[in-house]
# Entry
Amino acid sequence: MSVEVALDGVMSAEELQATADHLVSLQLDDGMIPWFPGGHCDPWNHVEAAMALDVAGRHRDAEAAYEWLHGIQRPDGSWHNYYRSDGSVEDSKLDTNVCAYVATGVWHHWRSTWDRGFVENMWPTVVGALEFVLSTRRSDGLALWAVEPDERPWDYALLTGTCSIQHALRCGAHLAEALGDPRPDWVLAAEVMVDAIRSRPGAFEPKERWAMDWYYPVLTGAVRNVEAKERMVGGWDEFADEGLGIRCVSDEPWITASETAECALAYAAMGDTSTATDLLRWTRTHRRPDGAYWTGIVHPGEILFPFDEHTSYTAAAVVLAVDAITGATPASRLFTD
# Structure
């Protein structure tokens, strides 16, 4: 299933395919999609790239990405944090948000292709991942940020990670219903997390200087309606540089295209497609002729940072935001539903 995805002033249909070509050029024979040629890979950003490939109609390449995850999943349902291009482990930590995101990706693939056979094959992988994440919960229902391979848990939860996890649990629950294997406990677990996101800010490790902690509650639907609008207005002056994009952190002039695109997704999620589109137009300064995107630009000197880095997840975030705003593909409402 393939449709034309384009957004005026942001990305033409031809440019989207060029970006997809770039992502495919990064993909290794085993299905891994590293950040850049010769770079490492983490499962969260790997899934983000797979979703972008589905938006572009490159479904077989997306399936190869998910098959790589299936093949390297640990017996407890988790993945390590970073893998080198040769398949060896670079960072052995088990990050709960990184592990949960496969459920979001497989649900997105289902809505992109309606391929029941592929999703049935991936279902045990999704179940294993989400059950691992739920096994790390504290007494208040929040999943710990990470666990070391020797089973020493970290002692705190992260707001952005929890937002993404509760969304993944809901995506997993949708998959469960579609496959006739209901998981109401996943929905209940997500609801507990949403309640903490909305009413217990002290439950999370303080990370206020990071833009993701500002917009992720809205991006993932944990905060909605009036509260969502108030939250986005409240953080705009701190994180947004008009005409340039979103700062990764509030106290540094580092504009990142991925944060800008994700912030656009948050505005799209609350129905403000005008602001979302403006934000994506600002990412044009990051776009390279080959369809890739520079990770970050430091202003006012327009210095690339990290130097010469153009990352798969950055390109993928822009593609997903374009689809969310245009509603072009069957999976476009992944974050706006």
About this structure: Residues 13-326 form a domain with the Glycosyltransferase fold (CATH 1.50.10.10).
